[in-house]
Design a protein that fits this description.
Length: 220
């Protein structure tokens, strides 16, 4: 089954259907266990439609024991008249070159149920590639790079993530290799948040990600 606004990667051997992203509406997101053990819904929220689509496509290419569902939304809240599964993880994407991107995320955060912030919300910074940064880190972002070309200072998003006590990832989504790397990390995060990794909870994941900027999720 394909839910409106979802990119779906069925179990091995199944067909794949892609539908357009859901935009706005009155529904307040609430967390909860996936309706079925094999279903892992994730929501990517951000104004960069093309980059979110590419990230979702990269995630759908990853090996995953469960049925992977990626929901794309420009903003929250979501429409209330659409049948969709419970969301296990929300990732807010902020482009350093768009103040509107940050403002949109800040406004969308008000529509997220507070229980999501117990390990089921994450932030992702992108846009460093356009800043002509001479040095890159292992995941495509150099903290020491020049941010003078950016509309948003990196620390602004860092403070936002800390305010909501949620993990923060860094990635130049326009670079295919970096995008593939963060896709792997997000799939692993989603598996944990959906309860598909025995002995590890979303709170465990939150503690791990907040203690290190580059945690080894594959070791969890």
């Amino acid at each position: 089954m394909c839910f409106p606004g979802l990119l779906v990667r069925p179990p091995e051997g199944g067909s794949r259907e892609v539908r357009s992203a859901v935009r706005t509406g009155p529904e307040r997101l609430q967390p909860g266990p996936s309706p079925r053990a094999w279903r892992s819904p994730l929501s990517l929220v951000g104004t960069e439609d093309a980059l979110l689509q590419q990230l979702a496509d990269s995630m759908l290419k990853e090996d995953c024991a469960s049925e992977l569902k990626v929901h794309l939304a420009r903003s929250l809240p979501l429409p209330s008249n659409v049948n969709r599964p419970r969301i296990d993880l929300i990732v807010f994407v902020v482009n350093l070159h768009s103040k509107y991107s940050l403002r949109n995320v800040e406004e969308s955060l008000h529509h997220v149920d507070t229980t999501f912030f117990l390990g089921k919300v994450g932030f992702l910074i992108t846009g460093a590639a356009k800043a002509d940064i001479p040095a890159r880190g292992p995941h495509g972002f150099s903290a020491a790079g020049r941010e003078g070309h950016c509309s948003i200072h990196r620390n602004t998003v860092v403070r936002l993530a800390r305010t909501y006590r949620s993990p923060l990832l860094f990635c130049d989504l326009e670079v295919e290799g970096f995008r593939a790397t963060v896709a792997q990390r997000l799939v692993r995060m989603l598996q944990i948040c959906a309860g598909h990794v025995p002995g590890v909870s979303a709170l465990n994941l939150l503690s791990l990600l907040r203690s290190s900027e580059n945690p080894a999720l594959e070791d969890v």
